[in-house]
Task: structure prediction
Amino acid sequence: MIAPAAPHPNQIAERLTGRAYTSWSAISCYCACPLRYEFRYVQNLPEPTVSAALAFGGAFHRACEHQYRELLEGRPAPVLDALMTAYNGAWAEHDGKAIQYGKDDDRSTLDDLAGRMLGAFQASAVANPPGTIIGIEEELTGELVPGVPDLLARVDLLVDAGDSLVITDLKTARSRWSAEQVRESAGQLLLYHELAQPMADGRPIRLQFAVATKLKSPDVHVYQVEAEPQQIDRMKRIVDRVWEGIERQIFFPSPSAMNCPTCPYRDECCEWIG
Result:
C-alpha cells in the first residue's frame, strides 16, 4: 500500500493561517511573542487598537512610496504638500480604531514631526536614488529553506544601479542606529537578498537600511548590510526553527516591557491559560 504523500509546507501554512506562505513580519512576530503570533495569524483576531508609532511609520512609508512612484512614472519629484497628502491618507485607514499615543504625543505633534521628517527625506540622496527604480513595495517570493513555506517579501525600494541591484528598506527611529541595531535588524535584508538573486542576473546585490530619525532636526541615514554567507545561513536556520515551532503549534506568551504596552491582544493574553 502506497502511503499518502506528505503535505507541502505551503499547504500546512495555509491550513494553519489561511496563507500559503510565511513572511518576515510573521517570523519576527513569532520571535517577539509566539502567543501574539497565534492571536494574529492563527486565530485571526481583529486588532481593535494600533500603536501610534506603527500608524506613523506606515504613513511615513506611504508618503515615501508616493515620491518613488512619481519618479518611476517619469514625473518630477512631488512637493512636500503632496507627500503630506499621502501621509494623511494612510492615517485615514485607521479610522475606527483606538490609537495608542505616547505620553507626549498626539496626532497634531506627529503631523508636525512628519512634515519635518519628510522634508529631511526630500533633501536626502535616498529620495532620488542613482540608477533606475524598478520596484516599489515589490513582492518577491520563493523557497529559501527546504521544509519551510515560501517566504513572501515586500521590498520598499528596488533600484537597478547598472553594476548591481540595490535593495533599500525604509525605517523610522527615535535616533540614529548603532552598529548593534544594524546587526540586529540585518536578518530581514539577508533573506531578501536570497529572494532577489534571480533578478540580479549574477550581479552583486547591495543591501541598505534608510533610517529617518524622529529628532528635533530629523535626518536620514543609510546603513549598509553585508551579505555574509555565514549570516545568511544563520538566518535560514532561524527561519527553520521558527517554522518548526509554528507547525507544532508551540505558542506561549513572552512578556516584554517594550512590546506588551502597545500589544492589541493584552486582554486575550491575560486570559490565556495554555
